[in-house]
Amino acid sequence: MTLEDVIKRLRKPGKRDPERFISTWTEQEVLDGETVECLVIILRTKGCYWSRTSGCSMCGYIDDCAEDVPSEDILMQFGEAMKRHAGQRFLKIYTSGSFLDDDEVGTDAAQRMLTDALARADRVLIESRPEFVSRERLEGLPEPHRIEIAMGLESASDEVLRSSINKKMDFEDFRNACELCRDLGIGARAYILVKPPFLTEKEAVMDAAAAARSASGLADVISLNPVNVQRNTLVEYLWNRGEYRPPWLWTVLDVVERSRDTGSRVVVSTAGAGSRRGAHNCGGCDSAIIDFLREFSLDDSASPPDPGCDCREQWLDLLDAQGPMQCSADPRSFFDR
Ligand code: SF4
Ligand SMILES: [Zn+2]
User: Fold this and answer.
1) What is the DSSP secondary-structure string of 27-52?
2) What is the total count of domains within the chain?
């Protein structure tokens, strides 16, 4: 059985209400060097096409999707979600898939949402897999210089993309999409995964730092995304067996330090951080590091904290031990649960 088959078996595609958007919230972002309010909207669609076939090993977004969501319903959700817009200058519109996939969102609906969003905000971010970032599609976008396209690169290693993440793309696909964005004056953002499954903690540091370096000449913003354990995923299956632990926050800090001078703006997602399913340390020092990661994402001159916690020694021991063990498991964290 292939990795694709295993992941497919674990999936439980959602059958949610196609007329209701998934979520909205506000957060802070940086726009032209200034910290601004950002409205984030997650629209419900039938989901990422790759997730409907198999999917990435850490991605459980398909759970929140519906079997089918016609374009009219997506537009209605967008209208409802935009009622929460209170003048925010930055808008992020996600779909748990690809905004530019005509089969998922519909080209006309996507154009209408973008036009409306750009009339109300200075900057609009959408997300897409690279294969939908074509010249023909991009040339049809309204006001490209005010649009940013986020793409999940995850790793710059084709081996990790294939054998750990099951991403169904390679680095070259990402490079081509970024170059196209640059040609047309569209911003590009790279999502990089911190600690894909089967990598030791040390390999995870090196892999994410290498991805940040490789993406820095291509993407304007690099977003480091530590894995959080999502439902019905291969990562959750391994985590339940004690064969996967989300990254230590020390690992995330290490990747930040190795990535901060690459030339692109670096931000860090703290989704799930501090919980058992998210990036975490011992519990005693987590909040100091998470606060720093949030501050750093808005101001890259922020200095890393030194919470003076003993768990850093445990983390260093693990970095040394996992190599000879030839295994990415963290037995102590399993017994501590
Ligand atoms: S991570 Fe992105 S590309 Fe992979 S299955 Fe999820 S939505 Fe699709
Ligand atoms: Zn600690």
Assistant:
1) EEEEETTEEEEEEEEE---S--HHHH
2) 1
Binding site membership of 191 for ligand 1 (Cβ less than 6 Å): no
The residue among 97, 178, 189, 185 whose CA lies nearest residue 130 is 178
Instruction: Please indicate whether residue 56, judged by its CB atom, sits closer than 6 Å to ligand 1.
Output: yes
Range(s) of the domain holding residue 290: 3-336
- We report the CATH number of the domain holding residue 175 as 3.20.20.70
Does position 333 have pLDDT exceeding 70, yes or no?
no
**pLDDT at residue 156 is higher than 90:** yes
- Centre of ligand 1 to C-alpha 94, Å, is 12
Ligand nearest to the backbone CA of 290? 2
279/247 Cα distance (integer angstroms): 5
Q: Over the chain, what is the mean pLDDT?
A: 95
pLDDT per position as a tens digit, 233-258? 999 999 999 999 999 999 999 999 99
Name the region of 198 (left: φ>0; alpha: ψ -120 to 50; beta: rest).
left
Could you tell me the distance, in angstroms and rounded to a whole number, from the CA of residue 303 to the centre of ligand 2? 18
Number of H helices, E strands in the chain: 13, 8
Q: What is the CA(246)–ligand 2 centre distance, in A? A: 15
For the Cβ of 48 lying below 6 angstroms from any atom of ligand 1, the answer is yes
Contact (CB, 8 A) for 95 and 33: no
